Amino acid sequence: MENRILIIGDELFGEQGEVASRCAEMLLCRAPSRPMQFSINAPTPLSIPQLVQRAASDIIGKKAGRIVLGLGLRDLRKETGDGAKTAANYAGLVRELVNKTQSGIMVVTIPVDYLPEARDQIDIINEALRGYPLEYPERVKVFDFAAHAEIFKEKQLERGKFARSLYSEDAKPTSLCITLQSMFLEDCILKEMEE
User: Fold this and answer.
1) Tell me: the pLDDT tens digits for 124-171?
2) Residue 37: beta bridge partners?
3) CATH code at position 189
4) What is the per-residue pLDDT for 159?
């Protein structure tokens, strides 16, 4: 269905999927008469390889017009610890979706502050994500939340002592981060729908 939006994410979309839920609510509030349906699987308990194995029923079978993916963080933390391997698994999932659906696929980059001790590994994943539109120009778009969060952080630092952080000391997203990401996704999805 053209108007169905499937949102799949790990902790990148909040420990309880707050970003995905809030984004869906904000989209409905902004455009209450627009025909939209949401299927939210965040936080997904599955690793990326498990999602590939279950893609037929959990993703492809949903017949979504748009699929928003916010993955890689869980795999990097718990599964692989390796940015290149996580990126390769992610590429396999995107390839599967491109080959077996007609859906538009949107991938969300990961801010390095989510996992500061693995900045270089996150950079590897984000670089791979940013390359997908070159490989699949008609089907895949990047929602570059990593760059958006970095700009926000720089602007907050200009405020000096009044700056607010997007992350707690233990690298958990604050409510400000969840709100910023929800607004960002809402804007990106609306823009994509209007193209």
Assistant:
1) 999 999 999 999 999 999 999 999 999 999 888 887 777 788 888 887
2) 4
3) 3.40.50.1110
4) 76
What pLDDT score was predicted for residue 169? 82
Is the preceding peptide bond at 43 cis, omega within 30 degrees of 0? yes
Number of domains in the chain: 1
pLDDT at 1: 61
- The boundaries of the domain holding residue 32 are 4-194
Backbone angles phi, psi at 37, to 5 degrees: -125, 145
Q: What is the three-state SS of the chain? A: CCCEEEEEECHHHCCCCHHHHHHHHHHHHHCCCCCCEEEEECCCCCCHHHHHHCHHHHCHHHCCCEEEEECCHHHHHHHCCCHHHHHHHHHHHHHHHHHHCCCEEEEECCCHHHCHHHHHHHHHHHHHHHHHHHHCCCCEEEECHHHHHHHHHHHHHCCHHHCCCCECCCCCECHHHHHHHHHHHHHHHHHHHHC
